[in-house]
Design goal:
This protein has 496 residues and is an alpha/beta fold. The protein has two domains: 279 residues, Aldehyde Dehydrogenase, Chain A, domain 1, CATH 3.40.605.10; 190 residues, 3-Layer(aba) Sandwich (Aldehyde Dehydrogenase, Chain A, domain 2), CATH 3.40.309.10. It is 38% helix and 21% strand. The protein contains 15 helices and 24 strands. It has a seven-stranded mixed beta sheet, with helices on both faces. A hairpin with a 6-residue loop joins strand 5 and strand 6. Helix 5 runs parallel beside helix 6. The longest helix is centred in the N-terminal third of the chain and has 22 residues. The radius of gyration is 23 Å and the shape is globular. The termini are far apart. The mean pLDDT is 97.
């Protein structure tokens, strides 16, 4: 029998780590500065967290560089790194409820999602890369018999990772797990809105046996700590997930510093294409609702553009609207809640601004559109659906990052593809049809890093994730992610 957890009581007993983690130890920011970490659940201050700047990034990068150069981690065998990473995963799993609670308080997602989704996926990610690293082989080139050409992959060095607030620990794990598995040292900059789980997990990394200096966490603001990491002359690679606007800054920082490699996973405006011949329209409607209202729409591949074939438009959108009502925002600490909070006041105002823009530009508001639960002190917006949207409207073009769905009608497959591709983004696309030939043709025509057919699930850690166009480049997840954390070396030996 499962015993219900009193999450508010658990929250009152939490110990929150609020200092930077550098060189294997927690420490204040060099200048003593802090910032308030505010919970979107109720607007309360959770902690005053070290506000790291360039001095702290210097300290963290030096610790990472020293660790890399003396080989305390990089020179360990793949099998030894594997053992440590698996222990790390086991510790994350052991402390999963604590980590899930931190994630909910810090970011506002429902505790059921943090516990059953995020923490489970983080554990899987760390374990998967631990298991993978001693099963990768190098190559021998097809040379003449008088020569031997060895093609080997080596760790790239010091990796800077800057991650967003929507899936704070999972996005971090997608970066640090393969980077650590490959033998690198890591300096992680979590989003200022959600730094708490990264700091706790850094402590668990040390407990698992990852040596001091190999895994560092510098909380702080993007314009200070983030920029310092991007511009640092001793960072070999920078990996970023976040907005397209900020991603472009990291390309600039690389060019202006040491030409460090940069990998970007940026914005999205996923088209979700539903044809009249879809085999299960109820499943497609559920996919449409889940695709935009899960995590309050704060998902880079949120299915925010719903393209519906004209023959089924009215009935299908009615079904989606009925399902959307199940996502009425509730207390994130209630395990029955399906939709929680928006991360902070700034993002709340931004989403509400887009809703106002949709009304102004002539879209038809058919559901929601309001901020709710204001009496709690937290930040909540109800599920919102616009109909009669065209692709030139702002709500159809810009990434809103909130629970706002734009419904667009099409008549032919060609029109659907044209509408879907008419975007600066290309992270993901979804399509629903019973016609296998149509599915293949359209999947090939869609300019997106992931195309799903008759599902919203784009696969687990074993499949790559990343985008086309201004959704960025480089891939997280799968063995492909290891490529951006390694250097390819050729050793050419003359034999005869």
């Amino acid at each position: 029998m499962t015993v219900a957890i009193d999450w508010r009581a658990e929250a009152s007993r939490l110990t929150i780590r609020d200092k930077a983690f550098i060189g294997g130890a927690f420490m204040d920011a060099a200048n003593g500065a802090t910032f308030d970490c505010i919970s979107p659940v109720d607007g309360a201050v959770l902690a005053r967290v070290a506000a790291c700047d360039a001095q702290d990034v210097d300290r963290a990068v030096k610790a990472a560089r020293d660790a890399f150069e003396d080989g305390r981690w990089a020179d360990r065998s793949p099998k030894a790194r594997k053992r440590t990473l698996i222990k790390f995963a086991e510790l994350i799993e052991k402390h999963g409820d604590e980590i899930a609670l931190l994630e909910t308080l810090d970011m506002g997602k429902p505790i059921a999602n943090a516990r059953g989704g995020d923490v489970r996926a983080v554990t899987e990610c760390v374990r998967w890369y631990g298991e993978a690293i001693d099963k990768l082989y190098d190559e021998i080139a097809p040379t003449p018999k008088t020569a031997l050409a060895l093609i080997t992959r080596e760790p790239i060095g010091v990796v800077g990772a800057v991650v967003p607030w929507n899936f704070p620990l999972l996005m971090a794990a997608w970066k640090f797990a393969p980077a650590l598995a490959a033998g690198n040292s890591v300096v992680l900059k979590p989003a200022e809105q959600s730094p708490l789980t990264a700091l706790r997990v850094a402590e668990l990394a040390a407990e698992a046996g990852i040596p001091p200096g190999v895994f560092n966490v510098v909380p702080g603001f993007g314009e200070t700590a983030g920029q310092a990491l991007g511009r640092h002359m001793d960072v070999d690679a920078l990996t970023f997930t976040g907005s397209t606007e900020v991603g472009k800054f990291f390309l600039k920082y690389s060019a202006e510093s040491n030409m460090k490699t940069v990998s970007l996973e940026c914005g999205g405006k996923t088209p979700n294409i539903v044809f009249a011949d879809t085999p299960d329209l109820k499943a497609a409607a559920k996919g449409a609702a889940d695709g935009i209202f899960y995590n309050s729409g704060q998902v880079c591949d949120a299915a925010s553009r719903l393209l519906i074939e004209d023959k089924i438009h009215d009935a299908f959108l009615s079904e989606v609207a009925a399902l959307a009502k199940q996502y009425r925002p509730g207390d994130p600490l209630d395990e029955k809640t399906k939709m929680g909070a928006i991360v902070d006041a700034t993002q709340t105002h931004r989403v509400l601004g887009f809703i106002d823009m949709g009304k102004t530009e002539g879209a038809t508001l058919t559901l929601g559109g309001n901020q709710v639960r204001t009496e709690t002190g937290g930040f909540y917006i109800e599920p919102t659906i616009f109909d009669r949207v065209n692709n030139s409207m702002t709500i159809a073009r810009e990434e809103i990052f909130g629970p706002v769905l734009s419904a667009i009608t099409f008549k032919t497959p060609e029109e659907a593809v044209k509408l879907a591709n008419d975007s600066k983004y290309g992270l993901e696309a979804n399509l629903w049809t019973n016609d296998l030939t149509k599915a293949h043709k359209i999947a090939r025509a869609l300019r997106a890093g992931t195309v799903t057919v008759n599902t919203r699930d784009g696969g687990g850690i074993e499949v790559p994730f990343g985008g086309y166009k201004q959704s960025g480049f480089g891939r997280d997840k799968s063995l492909h992610a290891l490529h951006k954390y390694t250097q390819l070396k050729t050793t050419y030996i003359q034999i005869g």
